[in-house]
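Following up on my earlier thread - several people asked me to post the actual chain instead of describing it. Fair enough. Here it is, all 51 residues.
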Amino acid sequence: MLGWSITFLVVALIAAVLGFGGIAGTAAGIAKILFVVFAVLFVVSLLRRAT
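Reply from S.P.:
Thanks for posting it. Predicted structure:
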C-alpha cells in the first residue's frame, strides 16, 4: 500500500513538472488517500499484535 502511495506521488510530481495540473492534482489526491489508508492499517496492525 505504501508502495502505491509513493508511485502516485512520483506520478503527481512528474505531471506537475510537465504542466499537467489536473493529472497532478488527481494523482496527489490518490496518494494522500492511500497513505492515510496505509497509516490506519499499520496502526491497527500494531495494536492487534500488541494484544
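The chain has one domain: 2-50. That should answer part of your original question.
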